[in-house]
C-alpha cells in the first residue's frame, strides 16, 4: 500500500517525474466493453476502476470507487453526452489515443492530449493517467474534475467543480464550487454571474496573502487546504485523523446535487467492506442553497429534507417538479383596477420567510402600514416586514433565493388576485409617466428653448387646480405618483410628481436639490419646470412626454425598433448621462437608470427622467445608502457591498440597459426557453466569448460589426470592478465609432 505515498511525492513535484513501467499496467491496443469482460480497468488496490458503468438506459465512461454495497462514481468522461449503447468500446488504440467507439465509424476522444500515449494506468488514488514513451504524464483525469475531488487531487485557481443532476445522473447539475483568483472558495448556483449576491457559501479566505493565487487541495489524510506554489496554506477543514489507518482510508469531497459540499472518509477493511463517515459539510442550512428553489418559491425543511413551496398567488411552473419555480396564477396588469376596486384582490401573508433579494424601496413603519403601503404602490407586488428593525421592504416579482427562518422576525405580504378575477383590459402600466389617451394640446413650438430656464415655485393650490385635483394618474414609481396636468390656461401639458416618504424632509435641502436639478438643461433630459415645497408637501412639475417610456418600446410594443433606432437611442441616453456626470455644474449620479426612467417625446427623442432625486432619499452626503435605491437587475454590485456609489454605478446600469436595447428583452426573463437565457448578460457573454453573437439575433438583419460593438460596450460597462468600467465619455466615444474597443473580459472575472 505504499503506492499512495509514491503518488503523493509525484503530486508535490508536479507529477512530472517518470514512473517505472511496472506502474503502467494498460498497454496500447487494449479495449474494454460495457457488457463483455473486461468492463473496466481496476487500480492495483482494487479500490478504483475505470470503464463503463450503467446510467439511464445505457452506459457512461467514468471512474468509480469499488464498494460492496454501491459503487460511487467519482468522475465521468464527457458527462453531458448521452449514454452509449452496449455495442460501444473504449480503446487505447495502437497509435496511443484513448477513444470511445460509439458505433460503426463513430468515435469520441476521451483524453485530449497532443502527445500520443505509450501506456496507461488506473492508480490507487483514483486517477487515470496516460504516459508517453518517456514515462511522462501526458493526461490525467485528476486535471478534469467533475463533482468530486479525491485525496491527492487539486482544484486549480479559476477552476470549478460542478454538481451532478442527481446521484443516478452525472450530467452537469445546478451548482458550482469556484476556486477564485481572489483566493476565496465560493459556492454559486450554476447559471449565475460570479457575483457576491448569488454566492451561498464562501471560505472567507479572500484577500489572504494576495497577490499569491491559491489552489484547493485535498490531501491524503483528509485535510482540505488552500495552497500556493510555495506550499503556504490556509486550512479549510482538518479533522484530527491521526488515529486513522491512512493506508486503507480514502477521502472524497463532493459537491452534491443539492448544492452541499461534503467531505467523506471511506475506511476499507480487509474484506473490501468500507465504513463511510461524513467528516465535514457546508453550508449547514440545506435551504440556504441559493437557486435550489426556482423563482417565486421558498425552501423549507420537511423531514430533514429541503422542499420548495410556491408563494401565495403563484403555482409551480412544472407541477411535477417542485424545483421548477412558480409563476403568477392571476393576470399581471391588474394593479390600477385593484386600487380602484378593493374587492378584486387581497393580501396573503406568510410568517418566518426571508429572502436576500434587495427591495427597491425600504422604509421604517408599523407592520399594519406595510401592506397598505404596498397596496397603494403599483410597483409593489410583495412586502417583507422586518419586526426587529421595524422596516417595510417593497419588492417586485420574481423573487429569488427565499427560505424559511426559525425566528418569528419576518412577515411577507403578497398581493394576490381573488379567484376567478380577470382584471379588466386596462392596458396601463407601472412605468412612470405612462401615457394613456393624449391629445396634443400644445400646437405651436412656443414652449421650447425660448422659455426661461429658471425654476418656477408653485403653490399647492395651483398644482391641485392644474391637475384637476390629482385626477389623472399617469403612473406610480418608487418616489410617488405622477399626475397629468395643464398650465397656462391649458396651453402647456405637464406631469406633476408628488414625492412621498422622503428621508430628508427639510425644505432647505429640498430647495438646494431643486436648484441643482433646475440648472440642468440638455436635450436628452426631461425638463424640470418648477416645484412646490409647502409644509410637508413636495411636488415637482415636469414637461410632459407623450410617447411613453423606453420600457414600453422595448418590451411591450409589437414592433421593435430597427437597428439604427436602437443605436440612436443608446447614444442619446449615453449623451444624457454624460451630461449629468461631467457637463452640468454639479455632477449628478442618477442611481436608477432603467428603461422605465427613459421617456420618449413627440419625436421619439430620448429624455432621461428622475435624475437628481436619489439624494433626497439619502440621509447624508457620505454616499453610503441605508435605503437601497436602485432597481434589481440594473444595480451595480457595489450596492450590495457597501462600497461607495460613484458615476460608475450609473455606467453599470447603463450597460445592462444597453443589452436590453440591443436584444429588445428584459435582463431577467424567467420565461426564457432555456435556463442559460434567463439572465441576459451571462447569456450574451457566453455567446460573445464563443464568437457566436449571430446566434442571438437569428432572423434579424444586422450589421455584425455594429452588433459586436454594442455588445462589447455593454460588457465593459457591466464589469464587476467599477474601475474597469469606462466613463460615460468613453462610452459615447466608443458608440460614436471614434475609438477602438478592446475585447472585454468576463464581467465578473476580476472580483469576488
Ligand atoms: C501502512 O503501509 C506501510 C507501507 O506498506 C506500512 O509500513 C505500515 O505499517 C502501514 N500502516 C498501517 C497502520 O497499516
Ligand atoms: C440527466 O439529466 C439531464 C439534464 O437534466 C437530462 O438531459 C438527461 O436526459 C438525463 N440523463 C438521463 C440518463 O436520465
Ligand atoms: C462495482 O464495481 C466493480 C468493479 O468494476 C464491479 O465488478 C461490480 O459489479 C460493481 N458493483 C455494482 C453494484 O455495480
Ligand atoms: C484539445 O486541447 C486543445 C488545447 O487545450 C484544444 O485546443 C482542443 O480544442 C482540444 N480538442 C478537443 C477535441 O477537446
Ligand atoms: C494533510 O494536511 C494536514 C494539515 O496541514 C497535515 O497535518 C497532514 O500531515 C497532511 N497530510 C499529508 C499526508 O501530508
Ligand atoms: C369591483 O369588483 C367586483 C368583483 O370583481 C365587481 O363585481 C364590481 O363590478 C367591481 N366594481 C367596480 C366599480 O368596478
Ligand atoms: C395588513 O396587515 C395587518 C397585520 O398583518 C392586518 O391586520 C391587516 O388586515 C392587513 N390589511 C390588509 C388590507 O390586508
Ligand atoms: C388599450 O385599451 C384600448 C381600449 O380598451 C384598446 O383599444 C387598445 O388597443 C389598448 N392598447 C394596448 C396597447 O393594449
Ligand atoms: C408617438 O408620437 C407620435 C408623434 O406625435 C404619434 O404619432 C404616436 O402615436 C405616438 N405614440 C404613442 C405610443 O403614443
Ligand atoms: C411565458 O411562457 C408561457 C408558455 O410558453 C406563455 O404562455 C406566457 O404567456 C409567457 N409569459 C410571459 C410573461 O411572456
UniProtKB/TrEMBL annotation:
Its membrane topology: Single-pass type I membrane protein
Domain of life (superkingdom): Eukaryota
GO biological process terms, semicolon-separated: recognition of pollen
Amino-acid positions noted as binding ATP in the UniProt annotation, renumbered to this chain: 497
Record has NAD as a keyword: no
Keywords from the named record: ATP-binding, Disulfide bond, EGF-like domain, Glycoprotein, Kinase, Lectin, Membrane, Nucleotide-binding, Receptor, Serine/threonine-protein kinase, Signal, Transferase, Transmembrane, Transmembrane helix
Gene3D superfamilies: Bulb-type lectin domain (2.90.10.10), Phosphorylase Kinase, domain 1 (3.30.200.20), Transferase(Phosphotransferase) domain 1 (1.10.510.10)
Cellular component, GO annotation: membrane
UniProt catalytic activity: L-seryl-[protein] + ATP = O-phospho-L-seryl-[protein] + ADP + H(+); L-threonyl-[protein] + ATP = O-phospho-L-threonyl-[protein] + ADP + H(+)
Family of this protein: Belongs to the protein kinase superfamily. Ser/Thr protein kinase family.
Name of the protein: Receptor-like serine/threonine-protein kinase
Amino acid at each position: 500500500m505504499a503506492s499512495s505515498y509514491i503518488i503523493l511525492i509525484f503530486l508535490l513535484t508536479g507529477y512530472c517525474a517518470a514512473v517505472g513501467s511496472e506502474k503502467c499496467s494498460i498497454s496500447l491496443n487494449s479495449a474494454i466493453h460495457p457488457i463483455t469482460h473486461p468492463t473496466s480497468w481496476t487500480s492495483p488496490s482494487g479500490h478504483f476502476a475505470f470503464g463503463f458503468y450503467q446510467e439511464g438506459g445505457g452506459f457512461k465512461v467514468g471512474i468509480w470507487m469499488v464498494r460492496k454495497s454501491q459503487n460511487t462514481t467519482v468522475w465521468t468522461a464527457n458527462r453531458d453526452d448521452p449514454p452509449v449503447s452496449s455495442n460501444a468500446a473504449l480503446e487505447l488504440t495502437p497509435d496511443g489515443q484513448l477513444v470511445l467507439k460509439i458505433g460503426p465509424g463513430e468515435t469520441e476522444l476521451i483524453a485530449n492530449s497532443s502527445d500520443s500515449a505509450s501506456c496507461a494506468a488506473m492508480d490507487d488514488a483514483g486517477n487515470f493517467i496516460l504516459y508517453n514513451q518517456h514515462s511522462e504524464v501526458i493526461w490525467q483525469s485528476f486535471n478534469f474534475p467533475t463533482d468530486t475531488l479525491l485525496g491527492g487531487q487539486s482544484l486549480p485557481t479559476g477552476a470549478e467543480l460542478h454538481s451532478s443532476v442527481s446521484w443516478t445522473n452525472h450530467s452537469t447539475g445546478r451548482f458550482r464550487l469556484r476556486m477564485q483568483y481572489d483566493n476565496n472558495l465560493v459556492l454559486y448556483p450554476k447559471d449565475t454571474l460570479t457575483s457576491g449576491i448569488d454566492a451561498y457559501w464562501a471560505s472567507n479566505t479572500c484577500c489572504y496573502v494576495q497577490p499569491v493565487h491559491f489552489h484547493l487541495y485535498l490531501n491524503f489524510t483528509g485535510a482540505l487546504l488552500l495552497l500556493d506554489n510555495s506550499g503556504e496554506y490556509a486550512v479549510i477543514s482538518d479533522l484530527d485523523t491521526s488515529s486513522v489507518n491512512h493506508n486503507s482510508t480514502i477521502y472524497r469531497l463532493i459537491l452534491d446535487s443539492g448544492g452541499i459540499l461534503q467531505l467523506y472518509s471511506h475506511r476499507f477493511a480487509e474484506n473490501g467492506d468500507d465504513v463511510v463517515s461524513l467528516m465535514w459539510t457546508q453550508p449547514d442550512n440545506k435551504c440556504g442553497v441559493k437557486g435550489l428553489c426556482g423563482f417565486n418559491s421558498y425552501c423549507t425543511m420537511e423531514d430533514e429534507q429541503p422542499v420548495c413551496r410556491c408563494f401565495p398567488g403563484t403555482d409551480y411552473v412544472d407541477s411535477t417538479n417542485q424545483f421548477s419555480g412558480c409563476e403568477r396564477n392571476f393576470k399581471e396588469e391588474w394593479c390600477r383596477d385593484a386600487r380602484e376596486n378593493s374587492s378584486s384582490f387581497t393580501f396573503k401573508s406568510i410568517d418566518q420567510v426571508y429572502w436576500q433579494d434587495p427591495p427597491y424601496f425600504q422604509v421604517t413603519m408599523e407592520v399594519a402600514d406595510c401592506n397598505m403601503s404596498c397596496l397603494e404602490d403599483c410597483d409593489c407586488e410583495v412586502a417583507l416586514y422586518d419586526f426587529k428593525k421595524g422596516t417595510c421592504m417593497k419588492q417586485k416579482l420574481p423573487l429569488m433565493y427565499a427560505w424559511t427562518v426559525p425566528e418569528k422576525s419576518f412577515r411577507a405580504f403578497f398581493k394576490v388576485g381573488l379567484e376567478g378575477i380577470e382584471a379588466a383590459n386596462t392596458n396601463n402600466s407601472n412605468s412612470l409617466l405612462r401615457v394613456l389617451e393624449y391629445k396634443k394640446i400644445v400646437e405651436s413650438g412656443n414652449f421650447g428653448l425660448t422659455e426661461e430656464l429658471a425654476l418656477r415655485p408653485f403653490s399647492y393650490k395651483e398644482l391641485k387646480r392644474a391637475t384637476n385635483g390629482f385626477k389623472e394618474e399617469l403612473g406610480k414609481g418608487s418616489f410617488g405618483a405622477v399626475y397629468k396636468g395643464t398650465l397656462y390656461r391649458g396651453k402647456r401639458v405637464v406631469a406633476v410628481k408628488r414625492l412621498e416618504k422622503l428621508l430628508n424632509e427639510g425644505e432647505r435641502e429640498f430647495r438646494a436639490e431643486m436648484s441643482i436639478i433646475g440648472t440642468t438643461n440638455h436635450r436628452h433630459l426631461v425638463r424640470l419646470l418648477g416645484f412646490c415645497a409647502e409644509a410637508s408637501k413636495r411636488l415637482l412639475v415636469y414637461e410632459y412626454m407623450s410617447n411613453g417610456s423606453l420600457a414600453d418600446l422595448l418590451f411591450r410594443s409589437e414592433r421593435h425598433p430597427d437597428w439604427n433606432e436602437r443605436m440612436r437611442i443608446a447614444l442619446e441616453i449615453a449623451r444624457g448621462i454624460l451630461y449629468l456626470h461631467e457637463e452640468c455644474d454639479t455632477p449628478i449620479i442618477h442611481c436608477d437608470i432603467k428603461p422605465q426612467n427613459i421617456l420618449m417625446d413627440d419625436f421619439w427623442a430620448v429624455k432621461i427622467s428622475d435624475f437628481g432625486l436619489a439624494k433626497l432619499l439619502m440621509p447624508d452626503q457620505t454616499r453610503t445608502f441605508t435605503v437601497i435605491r436602485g432597481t434589481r437587475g440594473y444595480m451595480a454590485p457595489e450596492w450590495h457591498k457597501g462600497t461607495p456609489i460613484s458615476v460608475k454605478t450609473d455606467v453599470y446600469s447603463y450597460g445592462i440597459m444597453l443589452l436590453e436595447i440591443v436584444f429588445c428583452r428584459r435582463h431577467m426573463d424567467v420565461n426564457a426557453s432555456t435556463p442559460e437565457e434567463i439572465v441576459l448578460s451571462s447569456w450574451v457573454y457566453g455567446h460573445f466569448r464563443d464568437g457566436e453573437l449571430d446566434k442571438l439575433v437569428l432572423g434579424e438583419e444586422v450589421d455584425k460589426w455594429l452588433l459586436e460593438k454594442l455588445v462589447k460596450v455593454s460588457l465593459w460597462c457591466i464589469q464587476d470592478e467599477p474601475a474597469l468600467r469606462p466613463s460615460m465619455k468613453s462610452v459615447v466615444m466608443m458608440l460614436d465609432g471614434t475609438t477602438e474597443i478592446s475585447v472585454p473580459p468576463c464581467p465578473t472575472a476580476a472580483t469576488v
